Amino acid sequence: MNKNNPFDVHGIEHLSPSSINSFLDDKAMWIMRYLFGYKNGGGPAMWRGSAIDGGVGAYFGFEDKPYNKKECDELVTKYYHTDRKLCQIEYPKQVIDMKKYITEEERLSRYFDTAINFYEELGQPTDYQKRIELQLPDLPVPIIGFIDLHYGDTIRDIKTTARTPSKVFEGHARQVSVYGKAENCVPILDYVVVTAKEEKVVSYTVEDVQKHIDTVEQVAFSIMQFLSYSNDKYELANGCYPNIDDWKWGADEINFAKTIWSIK
């Protein structure tokens, strides 16, 4: 252990776009996840995104064997069911919103068809789920992530959503800017939208990559400074308090938080 490296002291070997966004968005949640090891099994929206991502990868031949479109559609449903089963096995106390689970399952094929119809027009990606590593100057740990789809000099990130985005979310822009910087590529966000009435893909090219990288760098060094305040994670946790009224704080998160903070 390097006592001069606060990341090392707290067992953090790398950062990621999601951990950087989490620290910026909700420090208490970040503390719970990255210092106290809180995990859960996700939920219907997350499982939907993972399933569609996996189906796209399989369609373009990045799985163990070739799959046709119908088989990929079936694979998407299989991935979705598997994630729920794993959640129930690994996190048996986690509450799953079954109404939402069924609604998402009913729309899986529409999400997948919409995504494939869009990406077929772009052709064969050069890579899928490529691991990237961005090392910022003077930061003792790298930022690691995975690119959904790589097309020559562009990278594309798949986001499934039930609402049409009117703009790029800053957290998403920071995420793909890290990928773009690491690969020296143009980052593009593809929002695969499925509502009760329509299906479409809304794409945004992130132009101001360096601006987002500057933010990522500032947040990364803020994390390092925060960790340097104490070697005791409980002492660090005492520096903030969770806002349990926020939508991100469900019953499972609150129950875990009670082991750290005095929550009644």
The number of helical segments is 11
Percent helix range:
40-55%
Order of helices and strands: HHHHHHHEEEHEEHHH
Which sheet architecture does the biggest sheet show? 5 strands, mixed
In terms of quaternary structure, the protein is single chain
Percentage beta strand: 15-25%
Structural classification: alpha+beta
Please give the radius of gyration in angstroms. 20 Å
Task: Describe the protein's topology.
Blueprint (H helix, E strand, L loop, with lengths): L5 H4 L7 H9 L1 H8 L9 H16 L9 H22 L7 H9 L1 H15 L4 E8 L8 E9 L2 E8 L8 H14 L2 E9 L4 E7 L3 H20 L4 H5 L13 H7 L7
Parallel strand pairs: 3-4
Antiparallel strand pairs: 1-2, 2-3, 4-5
Helix pairs in contact: 2-3, 2-9, 4-5, 4-7, 8-9
